Amino acid sequence: MKIAIITGASSGLGEQYLRHIVRLYPDVKAVWAIARRQERLQALAEECGEGRVVPFPLDLISYDSYDALKQRLEAERPEVAILINNAGYGTLGNFDEMELLSQARMVDLNNRALTAVTSAVLPYMSKGSFIINVCSIAAFAPNPRMTVYCSSKAYVYSFSKSLRFELKNRGINVLVVCPGPMDTEFLPVAGIGKGSSHTFDTLPRCNPVTVAERSLKRAAAGKGKYTPRFFYKLYHLLSNLLPHALVMHMSKT
Ligand SMILES: NC(=O)c1ccc[n+]([C@@H]2O[C@H](COP(=O)([O-])OP(=O)(O)OC[C@H]3O[C@@H](n4cnc5c(N)ncnc54)[C@H](OP(=O)(O)O)[C@@H]3O)[C@@H](O)[C@H]2O)c1
Predict the structure, then answer these.
(1) Dist. CA 207–CA 226, nearest whole Å
(2) Annotated active-site residue in 66, 153, 226, 232
(3) For the chain, what percent of residues have pLDDT higher than 70?
(4) The one catalytic residue among 66, 124, 149, 157
(5) Quick one: which of 86, 143, 149, 235 is 20 to 30 A from 107 by CA?
(6) How many Å apart are CA 56 and CA 33, to the nearest integer?
(7) Ligand 1 centre from 122 Cα, in Å?
């Protein structure tokens, strides 16, 4: 049976991926929706059709979650057509003022979980399937006041490009998507509100509905990268051309 797996499916961009896959991929018979908030996943399953959306409550910071995922894959042996590594969070503030646990857990979720989930799922993927790794414009250059977050997204960026190269001969595509700020729960979770960051107050917003729809289309078409909005494509170009010591004056959050 063809399935899709989405991490962080209970809100924001992940929820939009879920809705688009249910609508646009009738051959995907089930979407395994992973996140911690079971009630949110259950509500989405009821709305999108029981059976089509399969709530899979996991805390991806815990090592046990990888075993649970592996065991379910082994038991059901599905054909995974789409894997979306989307779960992630950030925090705003100087590194030396942040709690160690929140910073270490960010690396655990944004990097360790993404790596572990990919490793667990890959044996069930074959030619024509694809992976979308949700990254950020934060990967393009360091962002002071979001030091661990931008570093974790630089990992996601590099991991995705290298994995894409490795998986080409298996016919599996990997797309890395790099959105700018989106009005999702990400911002309050990060401690970003009006007035807390001039950069976040002024940057143009990306729409999670469009980001999900366009990145799915591009991944299916074999593309490797998607950065929404001209503004952020230009920022990427500048961050490649200019010294980062200079770019950091713009990218400081
Ligand atoms: N919003 C932005 O400005 C922005 C910009 C660029 C990139 N991004 C990236 O986009 C991705 C999605 O974020 P979003 O904007 O959609 O924010 P969001 O609404 O806060 O979504 C984050 C998702 O991750 C899940 N999650 C958090 N901790 C988890 C854990 N320990 N185990 C399993 N799932 C966990 C959350 O569900 P539960 O709480 O139910 O577990 C939620 O479904 C992230 O990777 C983020 O870095 C966001």
Answers:
(1) 14
(2) 153
(3) 100
(4) 149
(5) 235
(6) 5
(7) 22
